[in-house]
Amino acid sequence: MLSRTADHLFWMARYMERAENTARMLDVNYQSSLLPQSAAVAEQGWRGLLSISELTNDYNNRYGAINPRQVKDFMVRDERNPSSILSCLRAARENARAVRGSLTTEAWETTNQTWLEFNRMLADGVMARDPSSVFEWVKFRSHLSRGVTVGTMLQDEAFYFIRIGSFLERADNTARLLDVKFHAVESDFYGAADERDSEYDFYHWSAILRSVSAFEIYRKVYRNVIQPDKVAELLILRPDMPRSLAACLNEVVTNLKLVSNEQSGETLRRAGRLRCDLEFARIDEILSTGLHAYLTQFLDRVGDLGLGISRDFLVSAH
């Protein structure tokens, strides 16, 4: 397969996944902001959102003080923000258009229609009237895009690069979300949060679970009150939880093996090593060294994997 084609497919999938992840975080934060809370707690939520996406400096340079409406606009429709939902959907569509011949008609039309409809929604003012409906729509379109890909595309190299892009992006996002949200409890989290208002804790941890569609899954798996260490275990180590780090790395390694070539051995080895570390880790060991340190190292390793994949298979790093 041409490396240019692989590059477009990989980034098409990453940008679609990134749009969904941004919509998920915005939706949960918007819903949480409607709960009774102090101005300081509300601001911390919006500030955390910018921090997850590494957009704090860009936002501060443009707007200064935290304003919920401006944060939403910046992360949804600002064309100068390369991580805004608008920018991500446009990049996904441009990458798809460049490799139109490698996609099924359904896969291309889903991506193209998403871009056109999103612009129409913004023009109609839906974002101002009902932000949640916009976020839900973006999540649905991303699910649709993934389903159409799995349901209509030949499972060949094009398909494998799409999968690698999706799950590498998802792993990165879940780790960032966990890191920022656990940091918000104002400790490095070594397994036991300080005694705090239990109601705040419940909303805080349930918001994290809802942002990765894991609230019902948590109840099913643990059947008890929401505990921070169990939230961390579910989202890091459980391979049966679709957005966990372990599940994402399983997919990345499986698909990397299917496209491996002469120069990709080292990248595959690093991906396999990271997957094994997750497979055989225990949450108490991770927490004993500090969750922030663990997740920072994980993000470094995922970033390194992305660079390795670009070097071995793709023509450019975006």
Walkthrough of the structure:
The protein has helices at residues 3-33, 39-52, 56-63, 68-76, 85-98, 105-123, 126-129, 131-152, 157-183, 198-211, 215-222, 228-236, 245-259, 265-280, 283-289, 291-313. The protein is mainly alpha-helical. The longest helix is centred in the N-terminal third of the chain and has 31 residues, at 3-33. The chain is globular and about 55 Å long. The two termini are 19 Å apart. The model has no long low-confidence stretch (mean pLDDT 90).
Helicity range: over 70%
Unreliable stretches, pLDDT < 50, 5 or more residues? none
Q: Rg, please? A: 19 Å
Portion in beta strands: under 5%
Which structural class should the secondary elements be placed in?
mainly alpha
Main beta sheet: strand number and arrangement? none
H/E topology pattern:
HHHHHHHHHHHHHHHH
